Amino acid sequence: METGPFDNLGWIEIIFSGAVALGIGFWQLWSVNKEIAKDKEKAAAKSVKQESEEE
To answer: What was the pLDDT predicted at 1?
Structure first.
């Protein structure tokens, strides 16, 4: 049996799906890290404000 050029399209689907999944995963990681940095900045500003009020 002869193999045609479209017999192995499953690999293309696997690679494409993996790339999309990795892209979404890295986007979520970046987004969460950005939110954590914002929360740390807010907490630091709040602690500085509380320290200045105590004095």
So the answer is: 64
- CA distance linking residue 21 with residue 23, whole number of Å: 5
Indicate yes or no: pTM above 0.90: no
Cα dihedral across residues 32, 35, 39, 41: positive or negative:
positive
pLDDT tens profile 39-52: 999 999 998 888 88
Q: How many helices (H) and strands (E) does the chain have?
A: 1, 0
* Distance separating alpha carbons of residues 18 and 12, to the nearest angstrom: 10
∠ CA 25-41-46, nearest 5°, is: 140
What is the distance between the alpha carbons of residues 48 and 55, in angstroms, rounded to a whole number? 11
